[in-house]
Amino acid sequence: MKINWGTGIVLAFIAFISFILFFVVRMTMDSNSNHDLVTEGYYKEELNFQKKMDAERNANNLSTKIRIEKTTYGWDILFPENMEAQKIKGNVSLYRPSNKNLDFDVPISTSNSHMLIPNKRLLDGRWDITIALEYDNQSYLHRESLTYIKN
After folding, report:
1. Which in 22, 44, 54, 88 has the greatest CB count within 10 A?
2. Could you give the C-alpha distances from 33 to 57, 102, 106, in angstroms and in order?
3. One domain, residues 24 and 49
4. CA 41 vs CA 7, 29, 38, 49, 52: distances in Å
5. In which domain, by residue range, is 31 found?
6. pLDDT recorded at residue 140
């Protein structure tokens, strides 16, 4: 059987379209290709966006900023020294972009304006840290992306 150039072009288009459809179906059915939203309540959190922006502005206007330092024991969160440790209330959220099963939240419990996130809770790689705190009826929000590497 002899194939002319018109039939060859049609067969090439069919082969290409089949190839693309195969990969589209394979990627949508594959359990390793998980397409979750960043958070479960994404739309609800979007409604609180202005409050978060105000809290972030408050944190940026502090005379002494919130800092995160790597120590041999883990990450040490340093709150401004002019804040009384007993009055600081809030939450520290650690988000792992590569695996949502590693995400965790820790309530703020300070000692001398410090809080430690221990090594045993952290794995090597990128972490997004969100520190949401309230002090004297004022909200503060600090966000930072860090890469953790064990010593």
Report:
1. 88
2. 36, 18, 29
3. no
4. 53, 24, 9, 13, 15
5. 1-35
6. 93
The total domain count for the chain is 2
For residues 69 and 76, the answer to whether their CB atoms sit within 8 Å is yes
Distance, in Å, from the CA atom of 103 to the CA atom of 88, rounded to the nearest integer, reads 23
Residue 141: per-residue pLDDT: 93
Q: Are residues 47 and 69 in the same domain?
A: yes
DSSP 30: -
Q: Are strands 114-118 and 67-71 parallel, antiparallel or unpaired?
A: unpaired
| pLDDT in the model for residue 125 | 87
Answer yes or no: is pLDDT of 55 > 70.
yes
Q: Do 75 and 2 fall into the same domain?
A: no
Which tens digits make up the pLDDT trace of 4-16? 999 999 999 999 9
Q: Which residues pair with 147 in a beta bridge?
A: 126
